[in-house]
Design goal:
alpha/beta; hydrolase; six-stranded mixed β-sheet; globular; 38% helix; 9 helices; 401 residues
């Protein structure tokens, strides 16, 4: 829904920008510019469909064309609003309308439009594979002494079906994961797009990942293969069986509403995992009670749950205290502006209050990984693909803090 609202705003802003362009240049020039954008969009959609003729490809090509359109017109729309306010002010103070728009403002708006287009191009050509390691120190007095310094490498949303089998960039991400030498490796869902065969070209890389305390994964909404509407229920079940088989071959244990104890230095971390738990249209099959069943009272618990909505709605107020939840799912919409960890914005935040980075609620902590792969929109603008290195630190103070 957020994507559709964003696209609608982009289309409407273009109408206002066209009016501004007519006034700042001439009706003929404005018409030619918009006609050129339309022809370029049609050519892009046509070229995209020549490679793969499908509704999905067409929808993706149209969405990208609209994004470029928004980058070109939104700065002009903002310039138009400022210019109209100036015109109203001059009308109120002098009794006459200005004869022409402010030239400096118009040129600045055009430069912003060109910068926006260049940013999207960079996100397509480079941003989607500019992998970054994000460090997160999880500090709590509840961290047992034996677990102090334990390092968890979190990866999420690989969407392996979006990569060509001979992609030359994704192997670098696996090298970065291995180079972190984490004690644990956890994968918080959406390794697939729509088919378990997405994993096959990358099995050697997944198998080569090593962590002394093990490798674990949970199921994300895409992993159910329900977005391929050509599959029958029996075929989807077969897809799930294949997914679990491939995970076992790669050395990952899938935590389907289950937990495992991780013992280190005489202390125990209970690593729990649930199936996807989301709100419509995403499935809610995670069973937190089942995943935590049998864990001793006051144990230190780390939960893998693909969708951060689960933390927001359930985990943050669940009777059993879950110390740290690791999620993914949002991708930060693959479109965001980030100045620092606490100063970032994305349209996705109006759908997901917890969408990227660390959060705390009721003393429980959440980290949302923005994902390694990409889906639908083949770019990352302002938010790079992420590998998270989480270090547990025992802090002073009461265990509830």
């Amino acid at each position: 829904m957020v994507i559709y609202i964003t696209l609608t705003i982009a289309l409407l802003s273009g109408i206002y920008a066209y009016r501004y362009l007519r006034r700042a240049t001439s009706p003929r020039t404005a018409l030619r510019i918009y006609a050129a954008m339309g022809v370029a969009a049609l050519l892009y959609v046509g070229i995209s469909l020549s490679g793969e003729l499908s509704l999905y490809t067409a929808a993706r090509a149209v969405a990208i064309a609209v994004l470029f359109y928004a980058c070109a017109t939104l700065p002009l729309c903002i310039g138009a609003v400022i210019d109209d306010l100036y015109r109203l002010f001059r009308r109120a103070t002098t009794g006459a309308w200005p004869s022409a728009p402010l030239k400096g403002l118009f040129l600045f708006s055009c430069l912003l439009a060109l910068a926006g287009i260049a940013t999207v191009v960079e996100g397509i050509l480079r941003g989607k594979t500019d992998y970054r390691v994000e460090d997160f120190a999880m500090e709590s007095a509840r961290v047992p002494e034996g677990l102090d310094g334990l390092r968890i490498v979190q990866i999420s949303d690989l969407h392996l079906g979006s990569f060509r089998p001979d992609d030359r960039h994704l192997p670098r991400a696996f090298e970065m994961i291995a180079g972190l030498q984490g004690d644990l490796i956890v994968l918080t869902g959406d390794i697939l797009n729509d088919n378990s065969a997405d994993m096959l070209p990358w099995m050697d890389y997944l198998s080569a990942l090593h962590a002394p305390e093990g490798k674990y994964a949970v199921i994300g909404n895409h992993d159910y293969c329900e977005y391929d509407h050509s599959l029958t229920p029996a075929q989807r079940e077969a897809q799930m069986d294949s997914l679990h088989s491939y995970y076992r071959r790669a050395g990952f244990q899938v935590l389907d509403n289950a937990h495992v104890p991780i013992v280190r230095g005489g202390d125990t971390l209970y690593l729990a995992g649930v199936e996807n738990w989301g709100t419509g249209p995403f499935p809610a099959r995670g069973d937190l009670g089942k995943a935590l069943e049998g864990i001793p009272e006051d144990a230190f618990i780390v939960l893998l749950s693909h969708d951060p909505t689960h933390f927001e709605r359930i985990v943050s107020r669940y009777p059993t205290f879950v110390d740290l939840t690791l999620s993914g799912h949002t991708h930060a919409m693959q479109l965001a502006f980030r100045l620092s960890e606490n100063r970032q914005w994305s349209p996705i935040q109006y759908r997901y209050p917890y969408w990227a980075g660390p959060y705390r609620e009721n003393g429980r902590q959440l980290y949302v990984n923005r994902g390694i792969g990409y889906h639908f929109f083949p770019a990352r603008v302002g938010m790079r693909p992420e590998i998270t290195c989480i270090t547990l630190h025992r802090s002073e103070g009461s265990p509830e803090n």
